[in-house]
Design goal:
heterodimer; A: seven-stranded mixed beta sheet; 26% helix; globular; B: Vanillyl-alcohol Oxidase, Chain A, domain 3
Chain lengths: 190, 519
């Protein structure tokens, strides 16, 4: 449960390697904190979520992966015991449920980026540089994974930004509105 | 620390009260910072951000701590807002009726006190969720079912107290409630029914004991804090036969419920029979963007394509039969003959790769799940508020409501997304107004549409059975027989039972005397 003296201190500090720029071909090497558990939530029925998760798994960033199906029941079962950093790109309802469950256990929301498909393009509301994200169409979840990974390790405040992709089709099982999010528990170094 | 304080309470008094609350529940169970308090927001509010925010929260873990907390609240006249699990986001979630209230968060009180296999009931505390009770029953090898509301994280007690419904034959949750323990505003503890009899072993079995029955008074009200509640659980039946029937035309709704009424009143279909509209059903599988990316309601051509692609009807009817297989098969002949008599009806006893079928089948056999949240993807942005008029199970009334509400939805630029659910003799109509939270204009239109529907439904004789925080006062005012005598009675009771007006002021439009003039 939540604590009386929860304050907003930056837990991402010592040991975190901020990276200034990321590209699709190079993986950022930032970590949220030495020895800190990183749990990744993949909504397996959502293609963008799978792309995002694969990028973070390939980079060795995520220590644990929670895969949830369309019932979203996995959020109730699996988020109960999480500690450290929890990260995901999911549909908006899944993000809301995760936020409620993690927030009431005392986790802090660190990043909340939105990706919205409209008029044949993806519109992204993110933090940090937007050019790379805007230049991608179907690979944008990979670019977001890298940028979010970088943002987690970055101690300085990030500027809110928005961009729009080129014209692209919406994948068949995409919800068309996604959120990439990061929650962190303080004082639970594993 | 939150910058919000309870209205009319001096800052120094509030600070003292918080210290005293901490002395009762522990400092780590009093929440005042922005981060923990943010979890009490209405995540899908139809109002602008910044409405309905608490000033603090107190989380007791038992009756004694509640009594002491209420004593402090009375001393400082601090309004508190009670939640069990606070999960119903179609009606406001955990948020308080007014900003500045102190949350009385009972989520730590999540003990399953008793499961009685022989008589089929459980005795639970306010924080017990459907998923928790379901897991517990499976863990102990129980053969009892629960009757969950659609989202698995909902509270067993809270849903019954809010007159909620489920999808097994035990779907009217307040009817299935039996026996309460309540802490009154002055701290006195009362048990209803046979719970008041020292040594009674049948508190959760007998609904009607000597004297007036008070249980209903503590539902959708602010007269006490319910701390224990009995709930009847259905024994696992020897047979279960779910079915779905699709109907091709919107106007079939009238015939559907004329046929359903005798099947329900005579309990041939024992569970809640539900007719779900095309888009509610489709939204569990696809999003609106896959068919139409423009503004306004979905064109008819797109609706036709969705129905064809997904093998759905304009109405999609779910029900189930339960019991020994010979009885099921006998009753099925009656049900099939009646419901398949509508031209174009198509019967499904199974559907592959259909998440909507899958979650309905689970719900009708008491398996909680979270699938219904997936339908929020229809628009994206997650906002939704449920408009829920009640009426008799009449085909003509169903069609009249549908036509009126659909027309208004379209005028305001929304798709009609709804379902009709028939209990024993009642019909619930649930309209889900979906909007993108990030779209301010759309959110405002959703709010305006809701307010209009409340008044128009009342004019033709339909009230709502529950509602979002923002509309409680408006709906209370539609119950205006004899110059509002019913709500006058609520207020007279409120003034006697809670003279300081500390318990959930404004809940269901029931305000304490001091706040009635300003509400």
């Amino acid at each position: 449960m939540m604590a009386w003296k929860l304050t907003r201190r930056d837990v991402l500090g010592a040991g975190a390697l901020g990276t200034a720029a990321v590209g699709l071909g190079t993986l950022a090497r930032s970590k949220p904190g030495r020895g800190r558990t990183v749990t990744l939530v993949e909504e397996s029925g959502v293609p963008e979520s799978r792309q995002f998760a694969a990028a973070l798994i390939d980079s060795g960033f995520a220590g644990e992966v929670i895969r949830i199906d369309q019932s979203l029941n996995g959020l109730l079962h699996e988020l109960e015991a999480t500690t450290g950093t929890i990260i995901g790109m999911t549909s908006d309802p899944a993000a809301m449920i995760a936020g409620q469950l993690l927030g009431e256990r005392g986790a802090h929301s660190r990043h909340f980026w939105q990706h919205h498909y409209t008029n044949g393009r993806w519109r992204h509301r993110i933090e940090g540089g937007a050019r790379l994200i805007g230049n991608t169409t179907h690979a944008w979840p990979v670019a977001i994974a890298h940028q979010l990974q970088s943002a987690i390790g970055n101690r300085s405040p990030q500027v809110s930004n928005a961009c729009t992709s080129g014209a692209c089709a919406l994948l068949a099982s995409s919800p068309g509105m996604l959120v990439s999010w990061v929650y962190e528990f303080e004082g639970h170094q594993s | 620390m939150s910058s919000i304080g309870p209205q009319g309470v001096a800052a120094a008094d509030f600070s003292n009260a918080l210290d005293e609350f901490a002395g009762v529940v522990g400092k780590d169970r009093v929440y005042v910072d922005e981060q923990p308090l943010s979890s009490y927001r209405d995540a899908y509010s139809p109002l602008a951000d910044g409405e309905f925010l608490p000033s603090a929260a107190v989380a007791p873990d038992g009756v004694e701590q509640i009594q002491k907390t209420l004593k402090i609240a009375n001393a400082y006249k601090i309004p508190i807002w009670t939640i069990g699990t606070g999960r119903n986001f179609a009606y406001g979630g955990p948020a308080p009726r007014k900003s500045g209230y102190v949350m009385l968060d009972l989520r730590r009180m999540n003990r399953i006190i008793e499961v009685n296999e022989k008589y089929g009931y459980a005795l639970v505390e306010p924080g017990v969720s459907y998923m928790q009770l379901y897991r517990h029953l499976r863990a102990i090898g129980s053969k009892l079912w629960i009757d969950p509301a659609a989202p698995a994280w909902g509270g067993v007690m809270g849903n019954a107290l809010e007159h909620g419904a489920g999808y097994t034959p035990y779907g009217d949750h307040f009817i299935m409630q039996c026996g309460m323990e309540v802490v009154l505003a002055d701290g006195e503890v009362v048990r209803t029914g046979q719970g008041a009899l020292a040594g009674s072993k049948h508190w959760q079995v007998t609904k009607h004991a000597a004297g007036p029955q008070f249980d209903g008074m503590f539902t959708q009200s602010n007269f006490g804090v319910v701390t224990k509640m009995g709930i009847w659980l259905m024994p696992e039946p020897p047979g279960y036969k779910p079915f779905m029937i699709t109907y091709e035309r919107e106007e079939d709704l009238e015939a559907i419920f004329e046929i359903t009424r005798p099947l329900k009143v005579n309990q041939i279909i024992p569970n809640a029979a539900v007719a779900v509209d095309l888009l509610w059903e489709a939204s569990a599988k696809v999003t609106r963007r896959h068919y139409f990316d423009g503004k306004g309601p979905l064109p008819q051509s797109a609706r036709t394509r969705i129905a064809s692609d997904l093998k759905l009807g304009m109405w999609n009817y779910y029900g189930a039969l339960y019991g020994p297989p010979p009885i099921i098969e006998n009753n099925w002949k009656i049900v099939e003959e009646a419901l398949m008599s509508i031209p174009g009806a198509k019967l499904y006893l199974d559907r592959e790769n259909d998440p909507a079928w899958d979650y309905r089948v689970r719900l009708m056999r008491g398996e909680p799940n979270m699938t219904e949240f997936s339908i929020m993807n229809w628009i994206g942005g997650g906002g939704h508020v449920n408009f829920s008029p009640i009426s008799a199970p009449s085909g003509a009334e169903a069609l009249a409501q549908y036509n009126m509400i659909k027309r208004r939805c379209h005028e305001y630029g929304f798709d009609y997304i709804g379902e009709f659910l028939v209990g024993w003799r009642d019909m619930h109509h649930i309209l889900m107004i979906m909007y993108d939270r990030a779209d301010e204009a759309m959110r405002t239109r959703a709010y305006d549409l809701f307010g209009l529907l409340v008044d128009e439904a009342a004019e033709i004789g339909f009230g709502e059975y529950r509602t979002h925080l923002a509309f409680m006062d408006q709906i209370a005012k539609t119950y205006k027989h004899n110059d509002g005598a019913l709500w006058d009675l609520h207020h007279r009771i409120k003034d006697v039972m809670d003279p300081n007006g500390i318990l959930s002021p404004g809940k269901q439009g029931i305000w304490p005397k001091a706040m009635r003039e300003t509400s």
